[in-house]
Amino acid sequence: SGASPSSAPSSDALAALAALAADPKNDVYVISGRSRDDLARWFGAVPNLGLAAEHGFYWRRAPGEPWRTQDPEARFDWKDIVAPILAVYAESTDGSWIEVKESALVWHYADADPDFGSWQAKELLDHLEGVLSNEPVEVVAGHAIVEVKPQGVSKGRIVERCCTT
């Protein structure tokens, strides 16, 4: 399963970003939890527009530049621990699904029964926090999601980096 294509930006939004990015006084970035591929597909034609994907784990200053990473030393062997746990919760919670990102794994339950989904999310958080206590990851509860991602990856951190480089 995947996120809805309706998440793509409108032509008006793209035009506004292009106008902002055309001014050399501006540094304009789109920072999103979405993948590098999604952002490149949606925004790649906007000149001078910086992109930060997966909450800033990956970023680039402009189209055509290589993607950089917040942590080139990041390890992802924790995914081998997390994936089967998420699979159990996805299987036992109708309407839930797993999103596999390059830098993270996300359990989505917006389409599950609200009470059961919320209860399962609390159980999953406790389970993951116990199992992953010695791993370099964060377990984050969001709106109808539980996400496991590398420690220190955040939209705030990438904003700091974009503003200082």
List its salient traits.
alpha+beta; Alpha-Beta Plaits; 5 helices; 2 domains; 165 residues; globular
Proportion in helices: 25-40%
Number of strand elements: 8
C-alpha termini separation: 37 Å
Element pattern in H and E? HEHEEEHEEHEEH
Going by helix content, strand content and strand pairing, the class is: alpha+beta
- What is the molecular shape? globular
Radius of gyration: 17 Å
Please list the strands of the largest sheet in the order they lie side by side. Answer: 1-2-3-4
The averaged pLDDT comes out at 92
Number of domains: 2
Low-confidence stretches: none
Put simply, the count of helices is 5
Question: Main sheet, how many strands, which sense, barrel?
Answer: 4 strands, mixed
Q: Into which percentage range does the β-strand content fall?
A: 15-25%
Describe the structure.
It is a single chain. By secondary structure, the protein is α+β, with helices and mostly antiparallel strands. Helices cover 38% and strands 21% of the residues. It contains five helices and eight strands. It has helices spanning 11-22, 36-43, 79-92, 114-131, 155-164, and strands spanning 28-31, 49-53, 58-60, 68-69, 97-100, 105-108, 137-142, 145-150. The strands form two sheets. The chain has a four-stranded mixed sheet with strand order 1-2-3-4, sandwiched between helices. A four-stranded antiparallel sheet has the order 5-6-8-7, covered by helices on one side. Strand 1, helix 2 (36-43) and strand 2 form a beta-alpha-beta unit. It is globular and about 50 Å long. The mean pLDDT is 92.
